[in-house]
Design brief:
By secondary structure, the protein is α/β, with parallel strands linked by helices. It has a single domain (6-395), classed as TIM Barrel (Alpha-Beta Barrel). The chain has helices at 18-30, 71-82, 116-119, 133-139, 154-170, 192-195, 208-212, 223-233, 244-252, 255-282, 306-311, 327-339, 365-382, 392-395; strands spanning 6-11, 35-39, 85-91, 175-179, 286-292, 317-321, 351-356, 385-390. An 8-stranded parallel beta sheet has the order 6-5-4-3-2-1-8-7. The chain is globular, with a radius of gyration of 21 Å.
Length: 399
């Protein structure tokens, strides 16, 4: 992979036919895209191919039968013929909605594993009030746009490791691209969907009441996770109060204790990244990750301390989701992000700044190309950098 590359995210779920895939690959060639991250389980909780590890979709919402066609297989074949790098884009802790496989959700293949909501409800995160996010999503699907898995659990990490290895072994690809490699976080006064905004740094929180009230959701406080935290850190979480509410207030009431919680959770996420990098290295593949843009805040509640992944080369490429800013503000963000990187040269691995089509409000093609060039110039000034466009559906209408 060279410096100054142009990449794009695309959700294979939206491909309707081989001809549709051909149009995508032709567009990439025309737009000088050299790297494509192709999503195979985005927001739905099921794979678009027949999996022996994960639940798999029988068909899409728009009627594409995945039992007779694997769109990612076509993407790999046609992209390779065109000289594009292909990375499978896997949503990790995003388990989709619990309706998968029921009469209210998308159908799943009966020759693949059943949905996790049916087989492993204990794998889902529990919020700081003791409510499983699986139960919460079933009660009010609008509150959470997806249901998160608990990355602190060894069995969850094993499942996700197997999921990534299966995809790496199944296709002749260049790499595995991790997304949602983090915990979910709902800030006070916001919704789950709001919390997905990578630029949504929490407002200054002056009290425990503010941090834990007004609809906030912090994860995961199930008994197994808190017992492991206590056992590995020596903090007496169980003895700090008679119930979960008082124990969480004790934890959040002291910055040193809270940092130990954040660091412990982050270490679990980092351990999974490290393990997956070892697996991809065995296969001569790259490991990359889409990460939240705001650091250090994303190293707290969402437990994503990605500068360490870059500095220690646990990933071979990083793609911060730097959405929603004009080029001048975008450059200031990159300067701040690079300030958290310690290994020379900075960055230690190629750095693809993610830009969103939502920042391109002018539908004029020449104006869009000029603005894209400005973002790329900003990335080039940082060194060892390029851009990644989110996503093909939006940018194909602009360029």
């Amino acid at each position: 992979m060279q410096n100054g590359i142009r990449a794009v995210w695309v959700d294979a779920y939206h491909f309707d036919s081989t001809d549709d895939v051909e149009r995508y690959v032709d567009w990439c060639v025309e737009q000088n895209v050299t790297v494509t991250f192709v999503g195979v389980n985005h927001f739905r909780g099921g794979m678009i191919y027949r999996s022996t590890v994960s639940p798999s979709l029988a068909a899409s919402e728009h009627g594409i039968d995945y039992r007779g066609w694997d769109p990612f297989e076509d993407v790999v074949r046609l992209s390779r013929d065109a000289g594009l790098e292909v990375h499978v884009w896997l949503c990790i802790a995003n388990a989709g909605q619990p309706a998968l496989g029921t009469s209210e959700g998308l159908a799943v293949r009966d020759d693949c594993p059943a949905p996790l909501a049916a087989t492993h409800p204990e794998w889902y995160c529990t919020d700081h009030t003791g409510v499983s996010c699986l139960d919460a999503a079933r009660e009010d699907p609008k509150r959470m746009s997806f249901v998160p898995l608990n990355l602190c659990r060894e069995d969850v990490q094993g499942y996700l490791r197997d999921m990534c290895i299966e995809a790496a072994n199944r296709y002749e690809i260049d790499g595995v691209h991790l997304d949602y490699i983090r915990f979910m976080f709902v800030p006070p006064g916001k919704t789950g969907r709001d919390a997905l905004n990578p630029n949504l740094a929490p407002a200054p929180e002056e009290s425990v009441e503010t941090m834990l009230g007004n609809g906030a959701a912090r994860f995961s406080f199930d008994g197994e996770t808190t017992a492991a935290f206590q056992g590995e850190t020596g903090l007496d979480f169980t003895g700090s109060g008679p119930d979960l509410s008082s124990r969480v207030r004790w934890l959040y009431g002291n910055e040193e204790r809270l940092e130990r919680w954040y660091a412990w959770k982050s270490s679990k996420v980092t351990a999974l990244v490290r393990d997956l990098h070892e697996e991809t290295k065995k296969r001569n593949m790259m490991l990359s990750a889409a990460v939240f843009s705001g650091y250090p805040w994303c190293g707290r509640e969402v437990a994503q301390r990605w500068p360490q992944w870059v500095d220690e080369k646990m990933i071979d490429l990083v793609a911060p989701m730097d959405y929603g800013m004009e080029p001048d503000a975008h450059e200031k963000l990159l300067v701040d992000q690079f300030s958290h990187l310690k290994t020379e040269p900075v960055p230690a691995v190629p750095f693809l700044t993610g830009i969103s089509h939502s920042s391109f409000r002018d539908p004029d093609e020449s104006a869009a190309r000029e603005k894209l060039a400005r973002y790329e110039a900003v990335a080039a000034r940082r060194g060892r950098s390029g851009v990644c466009m989110f996503n093909y559906g939006g940018f194909s209408k602009l360029l």
